[in-house]
């Protein structure tokens, strides 16, 4: 999932019932799945300081995993220093794949590698940000290409005359 859990979620069929595309603001369950966050200092559920959805404690994760027959919940959505971070006795993991997020954080990124048998066996590859990343100039490249095309077209139209 992107964000986390929801106090409204009690069965997989509820997630199946969310027909896409959808406007999350019209579906409280979707908002929670997108924006809720784990919080080690919370027991149960509390309002999220983002102003949207909830934070949930380790007790919620353990109960959800037990009731939904899950070994591990994998989510994203929050910057974590090492690219991945476990929560609730390794029942939930946050993975973040953007190093030096927005140029404002000094975080690593990570990808999760899941083995074929999917039996709680996974590993992580941590990716550090490049010291001098290449600058992407797709817009300028497109502008240069369109100028070249216009020049070629004008040359070929002159030849036709």
Automatic annotation (TrEMBL):
* Gene3D superfamilies linked: 3.60.21.10
Question: Which GO CC terms are listed, alphabetically?
Answer: cytoplasm; nucleus
Query: In terms of domain of life, where is this protein from?
Result: Eukaryota
Pfam families (UniProt xref): Metallophos (PF00149)
Q: Where is the Serine/threonine specific protein phosphatases domain?
A: 1-131
- Residues in a coiled coil are none
Q: Which GO terms describe its molecular function?
A: protein serine/threonine phosphatase activity
Q: Where is this region: Disordered?
A: 142-161
Entries under PANTHER family matching the protein: SERINE/THREONINE PROTEIN PHOSPHATASE (PTHR11668), SERINE_THREONINE-PROTEIN PHOSPHATASE (PTHR11668:SF498)
Q: Know the name of this protein?
A: SER_THR_PHOSPHATASE domain-containing protein
**UniProt source species:** Angiostrongylus cantonensis (Rat lungworm)
